[in-house]
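Take a look at this chain, tokens included, and explain the fold to me:
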Amino acid sequence: MSWQAYVDDSLVKSGHIDKGAIVSAAGDSAWATSSGFNLSAGEMKALADIYANKANAEKAQAEGIYIAGDRYVVAQIEERTIYARKGRLGVVICKTKQAILVGHHSDTMVAGNSRQTVEALADYLTGVGY
């Protein structure tokens, strides 16, 4: 399956994510994105930095993060998962060995289902070496 198919089929077609992206764990390239959901080079690098250094995670919790040009307030950072909100909108970000998955949910979607969807794909990709 192509990276784009993971975004389209595993994330968006689930009905729990309305936009998604897969970027390299180093934060230096986008592997696949939903149309119009483009993370800047700085945004991708900032996500990678959160996972690389606890001080960056603390900064993200204090200042928020930017995803596709929008600022989100970080609600939770765990070992591999970040959850952030902008009003009732939210993003679930999950790191695997080689990738960072970003799933966006609308205000009508259930955040817990969105998180479960992104984490399930992360589990699968980790299991196959990514």
